[in-house]
Amino acid sequence: MADTDRWRTLAHKIADETLFPNALDVDQGRQTPRANLDLLASEGFYGIAAPPELGGLGFGAYDVIADSNNNAWGMHMATDKLWKTDAKTLQTVWYDFPTKGAGCRRGHIDSQERIWCGVFNGNRLAMFDTKTLKFTEWTMPTEWTRPYDAQYDERAYAWTAGMDNDRAVRLNVATGEFTEYLLPHQTNVRHVEVQKSGPLSSLWLGDQHGNTLYLFERSWAKTIGLGGTLMIYVGSLSFVLDRLWFEKFKNIYVEELADAEEEMTGAPALRFQPHPK
Q1: What is the pLDDT of residue 200?
Q2: What are the residue ranges of CATH 2.130.10.10 in the chain?
């Protein structure tokens, strides 16, 4: 509670001493002075700071995610900007999406420090590499998919879904190939969560208005085809049978060697003893 009071007191102080005295200049210039934004950022209110040349406080964040260094990354569907606020210096930098006028709504960051997000108004999936500072975008195969969120499975695929066309979508990042899955009901998707455990990734979705959770699980038969699945099963069965036959003939061979040793030496030979279960 004390921390909340401190922030409230600081906000009142900035408003009374800086923002209000400059309000007339802001109204006349139709733009927020950079000094106002720099002050907000330096005092820790960086989540609402934006470049004055872009209209000032109009560019907030719909979603905020943190990287491994605790830097904050923000995005908003109303702007074609992705912003980063440094955790140590509180300095904020903006990066332009390739698709103008269409920003991301929600996203996730992967183990390679890449940000994946749904370009809602641009009907695209976007990835921003925080190391190279480069964007990559993929256009959805179906109009009005309008991805709301996106996440990478740490293997090969990125998953996304939207609130308008009742489809879950999987992207093969290496090939650019999309696979669409029609949802069983009209669905309003606001968040995607990829389950990364197991041999194949799975997707969890929530229906915002339908009080329903969906789980998409891929099978080996769907992934590598029926022929590939049968080959795995036949190969596994052959391996098991080979092991069984090997153990059987090995035991017979050991017994025959023991018999031969007893005949030659006249002394009891060491015989095979099965390992106790």
Answers
A1: 82
A2: 97-218
The mean pLDDT of 192-210, rounded to a whole number, is 86
| Secondary structure of the chain as H, E, C letters | CHHHHHHHHHHHHHHHHHHCCCHHHHHHHCCCCHHHHHHHHHCCCHHHCCCHHHCHHHCCCCEEEECCCCCEEEECCCCCEEEEECCCCCCEEEEECCCCCCCEEEEEECCCCEEEEEECCCCEEEEEECCCCEEEEEECCCCCCCEEEEEECCCCEEEEEECCCCEEEEEECCCCCEEEEECCCCCCEEEEEEECCCCCCEEEEEECCCCEEEEEECCHHHHHHHHHHHHHHHHHHHHHHHHHHHHHHHHHHHHHHHHHHHHHHCCCCCCCCCCCC
Q: Which pLDDT band, with edges at 50, 70 and 90, does 259 fall under? A: low
Give me the CATH code for the 97-218 domain, please: 2.130.10.10
